[in-house]
Write a structure and sequence with these properties.
Length: 172
């Protein structure tokens, strides 16, 4: 994520999990009491209120995160078995995003679950500065390709609200 994108998410972007059918608050039904959750790009860290200390949120541009750090610089201090990637790992070139997926491959272990909300490359946010954000064009095909390449099972993939892609990956 470049400086303009960090500025956009720090100064303009606002969350609304209630509008997403699959990748918003409905995810709470998929998280067990025994799960340890890493929320990558947690933004305002809205899941913290619902999940308490079971969730650790990282975000490079929001002070509400437990840790203000990029995914690339993050070093895990405990084990996680659920990863929320709700609109993050979604910026830059294919090479940049693939490096982030490769890190998921290194950080996860068999059975870990990843819940995604992916933008198909559209800058359709209504806030000032969106024109400076490099949205990666996620697709169903790219999900299948990278799951195969990086040892994940694609458990579910479908259209979510607002032309977003909802995907569930399970680490093989």
């Amino acid at each position: 994520m470049n400086e303009m994108e960090l500025k956009y998410f720090r100064d303009s972007w606002k969350p609304d999990y209630s509008k997403f059918q699959y990748s918003g608050w409905a995810l709470l039904d998929k998280i067990k009491d025994t799960d340890s959750v890493l929320d990558i790009g947690c933004g305002y860290h809205l899941f913290k209120e619902k999940l308490g200390d079971r969730v650790w949120g990282i975000d490079p541009s929001n002070e509400k995160a437990d840790e203000q750090v990029t995914w690339e610089m993050f070093v895990a201090h405990r084990d996680f078995n659920v990863y929320l990637i709700l609109g993050s790992l979604n910026f830059g070139t294919e090479q940049e995003v693939e490096k982030q997926v490769a890190k998921l491959n290194l950080m996860t272990k068999a059975g870990d679950r990843l819940f995604w909300r992916q933008n198909p490359g559209t800058g359709d946010h209504p806030w000032k500065g969106v024109e400076d954000v490099r949205f990666y064009p996620w697709s169903f095909e790219k999900n299948r390709e990278w799951c195969e390449k990086y040892s994940f099972d694609l458990k579910d993939i479908k259209q979510d609200t607002g032309n977003r892609i909802y995907a569930e990956w399970i680490r093989k």
